[in-house]
Structures are given as C-alpha cells and as structure tokens.
Amino acid sequence: MAASPVQVQKRLISVDEYERMVQAGVFAEDDRLELIFGEIVAMSPLGAQHVLVVNRLNNALVPALSGQALVSVQNPVRLLDSEPQPDLTLLRLQVEEHPDSLPLASDVLLLVEVSDTSVEYDRLVKLPLYAAAGIREVWIVDVAEQAVEIYREPGAGGYRTKRTLGRGDTLAPLAFPGVSLDVTEMLGRR
Questions:
Q1: Does the residue 14 lie in any domain?
Q2: Per-residue model confidence as pLDDT tens digits over 132-143
Q3: Buried b (16+ CB within 10 A) or exposed e, 8-18
Q4: How far is residue 190's CA from residue 173's CA, in Å, rounded to a whole number?
Q5: pTM, whole model, 2 decimals?
C-alpha cells in the first residue's frame, strides 16, 4: 500500500512579526535573511565580483548625490508582505525624518540588485515584488552576462519597460538624469 502524500500547512509571517523576531534576536547578526512574500529566505553568499560591483556603485553614487539622496547599501526596505535587502537603494532624504521605521516603497528612488548567482531569482521573484510595491526603477546588474537591465514603469503585471545595457554604455537613474554612470566602470575592466 502506497503512503498518501503529507499535506503541509505553511504559515506565512507578517513584516511586523518578522521585525519582532529580528529585534528579539531570533536570528544571528550575520544571518543573511530576507522576508519575501511572507517567507523567510536565506540570501546567496556574496562573491568577490558582487562585492566589487556594489562598492563601485556606492563609490560613484555617494559623491554624485550628496545632499540629494541617501545611498543605502544592503539594508532592508519594507514592502507589502516583504522586507528584502537590496544591494543598493537610493532613498529620498526625507527618510531620515522617520528614524524609527524602515524605508518604504515611496522612499525608494532606485533599487539595485547585483546578481552573480541569483539572477533568475531576482528576475522571477524579486522583480514582480518591486513592481507590485510601485518601486519606479530597478536595475539588475547581471555580473555573468556583463550587463545592466533597467526596469521602469511598474504596474500590476510587472514593469512595462526594460532596457539592457552593456560595456561601453552609460546610464542614469530616472530621478537623477544628470548623474551618468559608465557600465564598464561599474562592472570593472576585464
């Protein structure tokens, strides 16, 4: 006689519950976790190329946007039923007026995911989350393909526009069209 499949009931948690767990010290400080659609998800380890690209972006954006936006590196953003930790976000300066709460979707001017091993997860899971939350611009830096995907115009079905740029191209955040970034410099010389 074959055993019948076991039905497992999943219980999703809210952002408030997740934040209480973090504050209570349920997770170790060096745990790389995010809350995605009510589920706690382990994040991929950071590879050397990933770290270099994040550092290059940070080094380019901080001086260019001084006094105009806050550059946040690998810090959480509170969205709907999720609390992802994007690699880099540009935030409205007004976010500092609310020091007791995490930035919300309305605070995000640009969100960047650097992907060396997680590009499919970022495209298929996180990108729809960001679109549903109304994040107006997302960049996925695909380290393996040496390209930057630019997503704009969020809607219920995802982003309406996508552009892919490679080495030799330049790009600028929608919120700061005067800040030009060189894709080759971002990815590094090969």
A1: no
A2: 999 999 999 999
A3: eeeeeeebeeb
A4: 25
A5: 0.91
